[in-house]
Design brief:
Structural class: alpha/beta
Strand content: 5-15%
CATH topology of the largest domain: Rossmann fold
Shape: globular
Number of strands: 11
Helix content: 40-55%
């Protein structure tokens, strides 16, 4: 039913459906829906198994914001039930089940970061427990009866683990079913996410048809490659840039991406026009052109989006002084230690300077961790009051030891 909303213009439609988009199922139907002037319900579900959002998530959130600015309704689903099951989605392993309290805590942090990009006042937030809290065993059996094991073994990660003789928990088969039922519960017109969610989206589309609803469109964005230039951005892999990180960290990490990912990052994460990106491509192909010029532009664009132009300028000045000129920053965070001979690995993880113990070990072994300018050669090191711990070229903290 039309609502008086003006149909989207052809130029806007092309940008909406092509820029930073990997695949749409079914694109022709999507075009018709947008041209109808009907207010669409846009489903975005998030798994609060971790509390933080990184730039990989931002690709989808930016697209949602574009639809939102055209007057469509975002429905954010907090997957508090499926997070307690765990979706392997590309990691080919059973994820840890979370408690309800862990899910709630993660969700609160996640949503705070989510609304740095998407307009909170124009977003409908729903929790899966609204409908799954009423499910009984009969509902579960009726839901599972609609699909076969063979259909689910067609999913890449399930198929790989099955063929390799590795375990697949029955609860994992429930994840796509429950995610699909979310689409039924909120009567989704379009579901958004990365290409790794394609199977789940299609299950939702099929289930809606089975239950008398118009099947949702599947709107998929490319997976952003992380700062390692190899795997998709992931906090567990330590190759991520968090949207809630300090401006100087976002700027500095952006400067570390590989040159061949400059253009994809611009395309997926900024509003720089396609015509200007074509010019960037020509510049990068020129002999003697320094890619750092474009990386700085990219870093400024990202910090400005997430903070402000003023913060972006300050982050650039920090990068120039600390990284390019090798100086110690004028201001840095202080941390309080009670032990003058601590396990540095644990300190780095606890203070958020690295994402995991394994990353801390790797950086120490690579000589990327220093105390007062000296590279560490052991996991335990002597620190004094006012010692400076440095990780890489950008991260610095000053140690405070009470009573010394």
């Amino acid at each position: 039913m039309a609502t008086g909303r003006k149909p989207v213009k052809s130029a806007d439609l092309n940008y909406l459906l092509k820029r930073a988009v990997a695949e749409i199922i079914v694109e022709e139907e999507m075009v018709q829906m947008l041209r109808s002037g009907r207010k669409l319900r846009l489903k975005e579900g998030f798994d609060p198994s971790t509390p933080d959002i990184h730039l990989g998530h931002m690709v989808t959130l930016r697209k949602l914001r574009q639809f939102q600015e055209l007057g469509h309704q975002i429905v954010l689903i907090v997957a508090d039930w499926t997070a307690q099951i765990g979706d392997p989605s590309g990691v080919s392993a059973t994820r840890k089940m979370l408690t309800a309290d862990e899910v709630k805590s993660n969700a609160e942090t996640y949503m705070k970061q989510f609304f740095k990009i998407v307009d909170k006042d124009r977003t409908e937030v729903r929790w899966q427990s609204e409908w799954f809290g009423k499910f009984d065993l009969g509902d579960v059996i009726r839901l599972t009866s609609r699909f076969t094991v063979a259909q689910f073994l067609a999913r890449d990660d399930f198929n790989k683990r099955y063929n390799e003789g590795r375990p697949i928990a029955i609860t994992e088969f429930l994840y796509p079913l429950l995610q699909a039922y979310d689409s039924v519960a909120i009567r989704a017109d379009v579901e958004f996410g990365g290409t790794d969610q394609k199977f789940n989206f299609l299950v939702g589309r099929e289930l809606q048809g089975m239950m008398g609803q118009r099947p949702q469109q599947c709107f998929m964005m490319p997976l952003l490659v992380g700062t390692d230039g190899v795997q998709k951005m992931s906090k567990s892999l330590g190759n991520y840039i968090g949207v809630d990180e300090p401006p100087e960290d976002i700027y500095g990490k952006t400067m570390s991406i590989r040159d061949d990912f400059i253009l994809p990052y611009f395309e997926l994460l900024t509003d720089v026009p396609d015509s200007e990106l074509a010019g960037f491509k020509k510049q990068l192909a020129e002999t003697g052109f320094n890619p750092m010029t474009l990386k700085k532009r990219l870093a400024r664009e990202l910090v400005t989006q997430l903070y402000s132009a003023r913060e972006a300028a300050a982050a650039e000045a920090h990068f120039s002084k600390v990284v390019q000129q090798g100086e110690t920053p004028d201001e840095m965070r202080t941390i309080e230690l009670s032990d003058s001979n601590p396990d540095i690995r644990r300190i780095l993880v606890a203070e958020g300077m690295v994402g995991s113990m394994s990353e801390a070990v790797r950086l120490i072994n690579q000589g990327a961790v220093k105390i007062n300018g000296e590279k560490l050669s052991t996991f335990n090191a002597r620190v004094q009051n006012d010692s400076i711990i440095q990780v890489g070229k950008r991260l610095f903290v000053k140690v405070v030891i009470p009573g010394t």
